[in-house]
UniProtKB/TrEMBL annotation:
Protein name: Lysophosphatidylglycerol acyltransferase 1
Annotated InterPro entries: Acyltransf_C (IPR032098), Plipid/glycerol_acylTrfase (IPR002123)
Single GO cellular component term: endoplasmic reticulum
Record key words, sorted: Acyltransferase, Lipid biosynthesis, Lipid metabolism, Membrane, Phospholipid biosynthesis, Phospholipid metabolism, Transferase, Transmembrane, Transmembrane helix
Transmembrane segments: 12-42, 54-75, 131-149, 344-368
Stored CDD domains: LPLAT_LCLAT1-like
PANTHER family in UniProt: 1-ACYLGLYCEROL-3-PHOSPHATE ACYLTRANSFERASE-RELATED, ACYL-COA:LYSOPHOSPHATIDYLGLYCEROL ACYLTRANSFERASE 1
Residue span(s) of domain Phospholipid/glycerol acyltransferase: 95-219
Keyword match Repeat: no
Family note: Belongs to the 1-acyl-sn-glycerol-3-phosphate acyltransferase family.
One GO MF term: acyltransferase activity
Biological process terms in GO annotation: phosphatidylinositol acyl-chain remodeling; phospholipid biosynthetic process
Length: 372
């Protein structure tokens, strides 16, 4: 009887905290997203007069919004430990980021672990499934200039054309630095069986913890944002001017990001919202490749990309067996870094969001009374 009461008490506490978290996040979205949109609407004259400053301000507010999402997990005890290469020194250089995709929580994890990487968050572009366009954050991503890609063979060719047009139109003009994509084209649980059948049919590696990546978006990004060299690799000088008239340096790096969850249990967005899972550490491994080492021809790039995901398979297999990533070559041991967020900064951002929401509500209410 005592155990039953103790279990009921714990369940009641989990349900109560889940409800309170949901209510807070609902109001957080209700004040933060409309405020973001209204501030940018107010600043439209600045966009015409000085677009560089406009997108600088937009990027700062975009980073704050992503920090709010990060705080939802942070206060529930969901943290990130980083492994591998330190990407902070190249945060001001242009890079393509390729990430394995297990669940909706992958995006939240990236939102958190990139917060301390200089200006990356406010100058990054995301490639995400078109379904995200219809979420609460879809309007923000649409304004920021992220690209929503539709999956499936029927849409594939058109989507790649749309992606190239999107990059030409928005990547340079808005001074983007990092572009993030999930080459697998879907969640692991949904694509694993299909990927394994394809691998068996074509004598490719059998993968369990990742799936074989798709080439399309990666190929378009490399060809659009980098200059091709005679040896078939890509260079770091695009010759495309940015919004200030200076010559763009182009992509310098490909950053291979591998996300690992304890016991191979992915964190989803519902967990971040309701916080019903005990405090969890998500592990993120980085590996950097100079852009000159990356081939741009389709066949060579396919082999290169497949090799990266074979390496991800090995990394994840080692992590699930030992609880840590393997020691890099030339090192005596694998070193991890605990990623931290400043709670004072998070509180200031949240306070700014709620104050802004109140101010905009008062302004709109006053205008409504004046007009009607």
């Amino acid at each position: 009887m005592a155990q039953l009461l103790d279990g009921a008490s714990k369940l009641g506490w989990v349900l109560l905290t889940a409800v309170l978290r949901f209510v807070f996040m609902f109001f957080n979205n209700c004040v933060a997203i409309p405020s973001y949109c209204l501030y940018l609407l107010l600043l439209q004259p600045l966009r015409i007069w000085d677009s560089s400053t406009f997108w600088h301000i937009e990027g700062i507010m975009f980073k704050w919004l992503l920090a709010m999402v990060s705080s939802w997990g942070w206060i529930a005890g969901y943290t990130v430990t980083e492994w591998g290469d330190d990407v902070r020194p190249i945060s001001e250089e242009e890079a393509m980021v390729i990430v394995n995709h297990q669940s909706t929580g992958d995006v939240c994890t990236l939102m958190m672990c990139l917060q301390d990487k200089g200006t990356v968050v406010r100058k990054m572009m995301w490639l995400m499934d078109h379904v995200f366009k219809y979420t609460n954050f879809g309007l923000v991503s649409l304004i920021h200039g992220d690209f929503f890609i539709r999956q499936g063979k029927a849409h594939r060719d058109k989507q790649l054309v749309y992606l190239k047009d999107h990059l030409d139109k928005y990547y340079h003009s808005r001074d983007r630095k990092w572009i993030v994509l999930f080459p697998e084209g879907g969640f692991l649980r949904k694509r694993r069986e299909t990927s394994q059948l394809f691998a068996k049919k074509n004598s490719l590696p059998h993968l369990t913890h990742v799936t074989l990546p798709r080439l399309g978006a990666t190929h378009v990004i490399l060809k659009t944002l980098s200059a091709q060299q005679e040896n078939g690799s890509v260079g770091s000088e695009t010759g495309t001017p940015n919004q200030t008239g200076n010559k763009r340096k182009g992509l310098h790096w490909v950053i291979d990001v591998t996300i690992a969850y304890p016991k191979a249990r992915p964190m989803d967005i519902q967990t971040w919202i309701f916080g019903y899972r005990p405090p969890t550490v998500t592990h993120v491994h980085y590996r950097m490749y100079p852009i000159k080492e990356v081939p741009v021809e389709a066949e060579a790039l396919t082999d290169w990309l497949y090799q990266r995901f074979v390496e991800k398979e090995e990394l994840l297999a080692h992590f699930y067996d030992t609880g840590s990533f393997p020691t890099p070559e030339g090192h005596k041991e694998a070193v991890s870094r605990q990623m931290t967020l400043d709670p004072v900064w998070l509180c200031i951002i949240q306070l700014f969001a709620f104050v802004s929401g109140y101010i905009w509500y008062s302004v709109l209410q006053y205008l409504y009374c004046c007009l009607f």
